[in-house]
Design brief:
This protein is α+β, with helices and mostly antiparallel strands. The protein has helices spanning 3-6, 20-25, 35-40, 45-49, 85-95; strands at residues 28-30, 55-57, 60-64, 70-75. The protein folds into 2 domains: 1-58, no CATH class; 59-97, no CATH class.
Length: 97
Amino acid sequence: MTTTEKHALQFPVLTDLHNAFARKLGIVYDQSGAKDLHKSMGLDLNARNGDGTWEVPIPATLLVDKDGVVRNTAIEPDFKLRLDPKQAVEWIDAMQK
């Protein structure tokens, strides 16, 4: 099941195969210099990505309006820090006023 199906979401969710969109936004980290570290932790980004890369996107949330205009962003290099969903709802509410 897709994320949209699992959670019965009523809005589109972007799937960024091979980080193509993230690369256009300039929010991709090349982790090839840390292969040994990743492997020592049991992480093989090459296998996980399935495309021969050691890249990961920086966690990001973008609010895009119905016309395709980005209205708000939250981009956080620390993958442990994510946008609070309540903040996203506030963004949406403010956009509808």
